[in-house]
Each structure stands twice: as structure tokens, then as C-alpha cells.
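Practice record 12: protein with zinc ion.
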Amino acid sequence: MYKAGVLVSPEEIKIEKRQEPILDDNEVLVKVKFAGICGTDLAIFSGNYRVPLPLVLGHEFSGEIIEVGNKVEKGLKGKRVVRANSISCKIRYGRQL
Ligand SMILES: [Zn+2]
């Protein structure tokens, strides 16, 4: 289990315990170490930029790969990574678990 800050309505974040995801073959699981708060996050938080809720904010982050899918190179486990915001294909934004 891990904790996530979940935006449930504008300006209302609740801390929830969530189950770790089951990875698809081509995915990795990243333990987030640092996350930024950008203008988009602030607009979503305030309700000025509407998105489906509930939502975990913080799409700009860095962390460590702690698990890899079956088709992912095993040597990536333990590597430090940063999410590239300009590459959105095949990345599940704020994957809802
Ligand atoms: Zn951003």
C-alpha cells in the first residue's frame, strides 16, 4: 500500500491508501521521490482547468524504478528516472489505481 494525495473536488485533496499496481509487460513502477507543482496543477486544483475527478496531481516528477514488467530490461530496476512531460504517448497520466 502507498499513500496518494487525491484531488476529489476543487481545492479539496484527501490522502488515500492505495494498492500498488499490477504492471503490464512493458511498464515500470516508479517510486516518486520528488514532484513539482506546475501551473496546470494549480489550475486543476482551483477548478479553473476542468478534468475528470478524482485525480492524483503532480505529473512532473522524478524517482526510482522499483519494479519492471516482464518485457522490460531487468537492469532498469534501481535506476533513477524523470518523467518527460513532452512525451505523452504510452504514459498513463496520473494512472488511477
Ligand atoms: Zn506541468
